[in-house]
Recover the amino acids of this structure.
């Protein structure tokens, strides 16, 4: 099949879609340098919001919470998810189909339903609402995504490699750690990356499972939306966006060098 | 005999790998949902849940005020899905038919906006569309309009916010299904004399339909629950099922009714997923994000 980059219509259409996707981002970056506090008209250039940002303790604390919840829930989800994917791939057992079904539930039910269910169960079991409940909730919706990503990697896995290692005298654990894990590692890493992204961006489930005093960044923005988001929030978002882009460029380079 | 030995030897590794996820899912997915199901049959004294079996919450679902909200929510979910197909499918088609290098670039450029939190980006739209916003001031200055346009806080604005937040969920699955199309089928079709449009309608579209279907499920369902989109873009004027549920668990403090509303959503999803599976859809495609 011929591969080309399409005609004039395709180009214009693609450009318009990208314009639609990037327009609000451009506005956010622009208004983070605006002298006016109101995000209405661009009055003049300033870096003031960036210095104010570092004095805005509640905003920084919220971002710190977001990172903390993101990192810990990703670790939990990655470990549990990778083990699960491996175990379900390797062994046949009763109840496998039930686990499979349970894994799809958090993916297909609306976030709001998972959110209120977790709120209800935390309330029933007297788990204090705060960072801990947020971490548990985030790990819950991340686990299936880790399992699916690792599953995809395992589906192309050659079982004979493991058998060879065991024939050569390596124990189960050693075989898993030195043979299997390195092979499925790309799947584990992308699963973890997905889990972290989902956690950092989550609004709805956090909204129901947080407690007084433990705000995440998205929840703080939601609270600010009622009175009007100040440009220092835009400044923080701009910094985060630039850091992410740099990280992606670096990892893409590494990938290229590795190949 | 050797089988039982093998089974026993497998027990410990099986338990270490599978039991954490089994326990986690039972305690934090199955139990909470069963508890919500139980709550949907309880009553409330306006302050807390009262254990008293009844069906009032389900009867209450049919209250005309709420039916109006469901209708509004379904209209928005339907048009969100439709617009995402109309914009996302051609985009995915163009992307799948590009060179390998531009495919990678287009994909990265598609993902970048989604690294900024969706609430922030919706606030960006607010800055653009507001009464004194960027768009209105540009149009006023150019003399195109004499009065600022009312765009923000309308149903259209909610729709825009939904499409904006959810469109990648259509582009990614449709891209995957178009990209893995067998090129020889398209060649065969054109060799047999079909023109481009004909090939598209009779070969490409039917073969990529599963991608469209899974994308639609991944858009339609969340858009019923995205209460923050209607809060920000609709100013709370356009109520969705999500807003109604949120309200029961926060302000109104009527958990049993909120639980019944959630059960209604789950029933709806069961129906959609069953139809999807019956029509040959693959469950794995719903988790590709």
């Amino acid at each position: 099949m011929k591969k080309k980059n399409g005609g004039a219509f395709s180009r214009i259409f693609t450009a318009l879609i990208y314009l639609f996707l990037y327009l609000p981002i451009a506005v956010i970056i622009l208004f983070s340098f605006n002298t006016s506090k109101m995000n209405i008209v661009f009055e003049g250039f300033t870096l003031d919001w960036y210095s104010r940002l570092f004095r805005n303790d509640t905003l920084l604390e919220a971002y710190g919470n977001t990172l903390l919840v993101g990192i810990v829930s990703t670790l939990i989800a990655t470990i549990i998810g990778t083990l699960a994917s491996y175990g379900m791939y390797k062994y046949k057992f009763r109840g496998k189909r039930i686990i499979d079904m349970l894994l799809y539930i958090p993916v297909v039910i609306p976030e709001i339903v998972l959110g209120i269910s977790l709120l209800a169960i935390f309330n029933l079991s007297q788990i204090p609402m705060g960072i801990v409940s947020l971490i548990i909730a985030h790990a819950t919706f991340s686990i299936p995504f880790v399992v699916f990503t690792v599953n995809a990697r395992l589906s192309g896995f050659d079982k004979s490699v493991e058998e060879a290692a065991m024939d050569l005298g390596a124990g189960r654990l050693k075989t898993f750690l030195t043979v299997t894990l390195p092979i499925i590692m790309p799947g584990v890493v992308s699963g973890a990356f997905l889990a972290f992204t989902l956690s950092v961006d989550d609004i709805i489930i956090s909204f129901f499972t947080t407690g007084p005093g433990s705000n995440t960044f998205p929840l703080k923005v939601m609270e600010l939306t009622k009175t009007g988001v100040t440009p220092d929030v835009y400044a923080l978002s701009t910094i985060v966006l630039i850091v992410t882009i740099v990280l992606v460029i670096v990892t893409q380079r590494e990938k290229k060098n590795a190949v | 005999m050797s089988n039982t030995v093998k089974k026993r030897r497998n027990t410990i590794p099986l338990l270490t790998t599978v039991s954490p996820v089994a326990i986690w899912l039972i305690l934090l997915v199955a139990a909470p949902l069963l508890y919500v199901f139980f709550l949907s049959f309880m009553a409330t004294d306006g302050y807390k849940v009262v254990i008293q079996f009844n069906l009032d919450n389900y009867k209450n679902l049919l209250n005309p005020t709420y039916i109006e909200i469901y209708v509004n929510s379904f209209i928005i979910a339907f048009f969100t899905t439709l617009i995402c197909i109309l914009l996302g499918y051609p985009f995915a088609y163009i992307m799948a038919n590009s060179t390998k290098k531009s495919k990678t670039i287009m994909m990265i450029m598609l993902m970048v906006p989604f690294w900024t939190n969706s609430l922030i980006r919706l606030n960006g739209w607010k800055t653009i569309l507001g009464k004194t916003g960027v768009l209105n001031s540009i149009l006023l200055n150019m003399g195109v309009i004499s009065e600022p346009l009312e765009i923000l806080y309308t149903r259209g604005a909610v729709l825009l916010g939904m499409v904006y937040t959810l469109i990648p969920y259509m582009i990614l699955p449709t891209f995957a299904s178009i990209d893995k199309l067998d090129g020889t089928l398209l060649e065969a079709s054109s060799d047999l004399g079909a023109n481009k449009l004909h090939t598209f309608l009779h070969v490409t579209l039917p073969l990529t339909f599963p991608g469209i279907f899974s994308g639609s499920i991944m858009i339609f369902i969340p858009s019923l629950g995205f209460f923050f989109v209607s809060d920000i873009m609709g100013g709370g004027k356009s109520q969705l099922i999500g807003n109604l549920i949120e309200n029961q668990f926060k302000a109104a403090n009527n958990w049993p009714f909120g639980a019944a509303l959630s059960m209604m959503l789950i029933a709806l999803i069961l129906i959609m997923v069953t139809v999807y599976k019956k029509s040959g859809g693959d469950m794995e495609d719903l988790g590709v994000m």
Observations:
- The mean pLDDT of chain A is 90.
